[in-house]
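ingest -> validate -> predict -> emit
validate: passed (alphabet ok, no gaps, 128 aa)
predict: started
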Amino acid sequence: MPTDGQAVPADLASIAAAAADAKASDPTAVLEMTELLAVVDRFVIASGRNVRQVRAIVEDVEQEVRAALGISPIQVEGLREASWVLLDYGDVVVHVFLEEVRAYYDLEHLWSSAPRMVGLAPQARRST
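emit:
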């Protein structure tokens, strides 16, 4: 971890993904975005079956990241409706969807050229 107090994006993404995956109904995806977007290094994408589960995932991600790295999101969007909640950590953006909203927007397909992260190592994209 850098000495300036900033979290390493891979560490933050890994912690957020593990927290989301523990409560998510679909597998959590982590996309390596550094070569595709100048403003973000990682997307973490998770989903829940209902609004209550989406909110629980968001809460757990925030708690686990705060406990491990001492940071909170810069901004949280969409929590009221909880169909698509975005947690902005700067270099890492966590998207938590309702299952049907995740399927509709299909960020994994939209960003299909982004390598998927497993642990801290990027993996070649899945064929879709």
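The mean pLDDT is 87.
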